[in-house]
């Protein structure tokens, strides 16, 4: 049989189509632009033949209803962790939903990356994303929407670290039901026991599915797997092993939380997403308090740039600075965009313990999802230190070390390197260059500078500019 080639439409309704983002059995999703307000959208279109095919299966006949259901369910939800619906309509026989376009990837893709590399997701990052998911579910449940298909493929991770729920195609609304009691609908490995039983469901069904997702994020393994009949037997009758049996570093509080969410009887689970979220934030607060900053800053850019304080330079060895309230407020706002309301507590705790801007940046950076966000914090605090004229204990040690050691690198070369580096990492470049020069020959100096560069920068080209003093700094 010859495969049919789908022609990319130039326009659907008023939306100008740019390219295909994805295809499924039911729909195609395009990247498109709304010319009225110059906004990019993810334009989800149902296959035209499904709208009018009277000879398909019962499941096929339900697809258009699911499409409309998605528009109605997500359309009533306005929340930072739920993909927004902007528009619904039909044009030239094509039904479409205009959705918020979220750059990034699905949680399923992120899990696959970690599985391929044999690495685990950082616990704090997992709990921050999950707190965002619970916040979104609490909001949806409060306005009468039960998602019914919470799974990694329906969770998007945006570049700045936000977790967003998408695909409300089989959501249950308080104004009616897409399926009747006795019908089974969902994704097998993430369905609740009551979904398998075809029983009446409520918000606690979503919490069971969320528990499955959390288990997978923590361990890299779905707790229920195998053939459909095997998965159904597991979900209905078997409790999975505790997450810590598959990821030994997990604390017992996490085990208890996950296993409670996976209880077979809804009455034994959390009563609400909001109640679970409150408990999760308390656990997150406790876990961050347990973490020794000297053990965690190794994942931040500060260490890669040679700027982390030595092991004996903790808050216990130096009095915390009196941080300007406006700086702390700015840090809190930026952190809140990644971790939500817990940002206020995290900033207050870090500020109370940090004796210099480097330590403060390190303590906050571990809660951020990527290098770009961590670099933003580092740069912000470096600017604060420069503008306020504060010489932190760590900076004083660097200066003292430079005087005592006697850098083998010509000061003019260090200054040139600082100027060149500043175009890529900001004001902190001068300290990076000075640190790189300590006790180094030219080869070691260049290697340290190259390690401080963002991954997107051509390191060889950068190093070449250090041998051409008259080249422009930018």
TrEMBL record:
GO MF term list: ATP binding; protein serine/threonine kinase activity
CDD domains: STKc_PknB_like
Keywords: ATP-binding, Kinase, Nucleotide-binding, Plasmid, Serine/threonine-protein kinase, Transferase
Residues annotated for ATP binding in this entry: 44
Phylogenetic lineage: Bacteria, Pseudomonadati, Pseudomonadota, Betaproteobacteria, Burkholderiales
Name of the protein: non-specific serine/threonine protein kinase
Keyword Transferase carried by entry: yes
Entry keyword annotation includes Signal: no
Residue ranges occupied by any Protein kinase domain in the UniProt entry: 15-281
Coiled coil feature spans: none
Stretch forming the signal peptide: none
Pfam family of the protein (one): Pkinase
EC number: 2.7.11.1
């Amino acid at each position: 049989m010859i495969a049919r080639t789908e022609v990319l439409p130039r326009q659907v309704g008023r939306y100008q189509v740019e390219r295909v983002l994805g295809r499924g059995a039911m729909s195609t999703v395009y990247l498109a632009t709304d010319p009225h307000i110059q906004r990019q959208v993810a334009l989800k279109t149902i296959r035209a033949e499904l709208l009018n095919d009277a000879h398909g299966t019962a499941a096929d006949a339900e697809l258009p209803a699911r499409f409309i259901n998605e528009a109605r369910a997500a359309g009533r939800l306005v929340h930072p962790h739920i993909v927004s619906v902007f528009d619904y309509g039909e044009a030239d026989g094509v039904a479409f939903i205009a959705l918020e376009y979220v750059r990034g990837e699905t949680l399923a893709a992120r899990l696959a990356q970690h599985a391929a590399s044999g690495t685990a997701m950082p616990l704090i990052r997992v709990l921050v994303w999950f707190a965002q998911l619970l916040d979104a579910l609490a909001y949806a449940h409060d306005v009468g929407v039960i998602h019914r298909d919470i799974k990694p493929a329906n969770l998007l991770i945006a570049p700045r670290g936000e977790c967003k729920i998408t695909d409300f195609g089989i959501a249950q609304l308080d104004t009616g039901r897409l399926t009747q009691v006795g019908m089974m609908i969902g994704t097998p490995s993430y369905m609740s026991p009551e979904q398998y039983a075809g029983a009446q469901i409520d918000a606690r069904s979503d919490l069971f599915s969320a528990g499955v997702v959390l288990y997978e994020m923590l361990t890299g393994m779905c707790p229920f797997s195998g053939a459909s009949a095997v998965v159904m037997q597991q979900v209905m009758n078997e409790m999975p092993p505790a997450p810590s049996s598959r990821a030994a570093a997990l604390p017992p509080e996490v085990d208890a939380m996950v296993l409670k969410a996976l209880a077979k009887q809804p009455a034994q689970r959390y009563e609400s997403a909001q109640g679970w979220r409150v408990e999760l934030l308390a656990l997150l607060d406790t876990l961050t308090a347990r973490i020794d900053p000297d053990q965690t800053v190794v994942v931040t850019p500060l260490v890669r740039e040679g700027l982390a304080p030595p092991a004996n330079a903790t808050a216990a060895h130096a009095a915390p600075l009196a941080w300007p309230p406006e700086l702390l407020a700015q840090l809190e706002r930026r952190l809140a965009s990644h971790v939500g309301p817990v940002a206020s507590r995290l900033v207050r705790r870090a500020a109370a313990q940090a004796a210099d801007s480097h330590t403060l940046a390190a303590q906050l950076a571990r809660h951020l999802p990527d290098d770009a966000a961590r670099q933003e914090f580092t740069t912000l605090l470096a600017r604060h230190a420069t503008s306020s004229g504060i010489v932190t204990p760590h900076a004083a040690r660097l200066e003292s070390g430079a005087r005592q050691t006697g850098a083998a690198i010509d000061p003019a070369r260090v200054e040139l390197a600082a100027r060149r580096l500043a175009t890529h990492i900001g004001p902190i470049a001068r300290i990076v260059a000075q640190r790189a020069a300590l006790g180094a020959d030219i080869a070691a100096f260049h290697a340290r500078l190259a390690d401080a560069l963002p991954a997107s920068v051509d390191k060889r080209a950068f190093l070449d500019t250090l041998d051409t003093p008259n080249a422009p700094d930018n």
